[in-house]
Write a structure and sequence with these properties.
- The complex is a heterodimer of chains A (119) and B (130).
- Chain A is built from 2 helices and no strands.
- Chain A has 119 residues and is mostly helical.
- In chain A, α1 runs antiparallel to α2.
- The longest helix of chain A has 38 residues.
- Chain B is mainly α and 130 residues long.
- Chain B is 85% helix and 0% strand.
- Chain B is built from 5 helices and no strands.
- The chains are: A mainly alpha (119), B mainly alpha (130).
Chain lengths: 119, 130
């Protein structure tokens, strides 16, 4: 059985492509950052920023305090409707929601006090 | 300094006299066979105590002298205060007319004590002047 693989003959050795030199290390391309030109008056005013922050805080505190109570009451109402135990579960879960809301209130106030201390 | 000018002394006096008068009313209602009134009084005192206690708790935690958001936080914390009050009212109403009457008495009792203390103080000051 003959070997089918091609092997260069001594004459063909010269036709082989020469070894390529190693690629030189290119320098890092310069970093170009584009900044959008700001339109005059596009920057929100400090009053707007302050009011936005106050509104977001009011919403977040309101939801975090009222949320557990409402969720507890709704869950209790649903359970009472399912098991016919009205108003036991509504009362229990509402009180539990109030406890969770109180804990959340204390946490929020501590956070606000810490922010106030940092200023 | 009079009792009316010192919040701590006023709170102690109101607490003491409310407990004494509330005990008398509850005892009398039990002896009279109308226990619903006694339970209503207890619920009423509890409701007013919770409202006042919640304010004291909020003032303690919110620290109004440090926190400029105090009025807003106090308003936002109302959803935590009212459910328990509503539950107490619901329980009082479930007990019938006598328990509802007792509930009103229980609410009025601490307020009557404060009024009584104020009148006593005014009479004492009037006596000192004359």
């Amino acid at each position: 059985m003959t070997d089918s693989r091609w092997t260069p003959s001594p004459d063909e050795e010269d036709l082989r492509a020469p070894e390529l030199p190693p690629t030189p290390k290119l320098p890092e391309p310069p970093r170009v950052e584009f900044e959008r030109p700001r339109l005059p008056g596009a920057e929100p005013s400090p009053t707007f920023q302050r009011n936005t922050r106050a509104i977001s805080l009011a919403f977040s505190i309101g939801f975090s305090l009222a949320g557990p109570v409402i969720l507890g009451a709704l869950a209790g109402y649903w359970l009472d409707g399912r098991f016919g135990t009205s108003p036991t579960w509504t009362m229990i879960l509402t009180i539990l929601g109030m406890g969770a809301g109180l804990a959340q209130m204390i946490r929020v106030v501590n956070k606000l006090n810490q922010l106030e201390d940092k200023r | 300094m009079s009792v009316m000018d010192d919040p701590v002394r006023l709170a102690r006096a109101v607490g003491k006299w409310t407990a004494v008068l509330g005990g008398v009313v509850v005892g009398a209602s039990l002896l009279g066979g109308v226990w619903q009134v006694g339970v209503g009084v207890l619920l009423g005192v509890l409701a007013l105590g919770w409202a006042v206690g919640f304010f004291a708790l909020a003032t303690r935690f919110f620290q109004p002298q440090r926190n400029p958001l105090f009025p807003r936080l106090l308003m936002l914390s109302n959803p935590l205060k009212y459910p328990l009050l509503l539950l107490l009212v619901y329980l009082a109403v479930q007990g019938g007319a006598l328990m509802a009457l007792g509930f009103v008495l229980g609410i009025v009792l601490p307020l009557a004590v404060i009024t009584g203390l104020a009148v006593r103080e005014a009479v004492a000051q009037w006596g000192e002047r004359n």
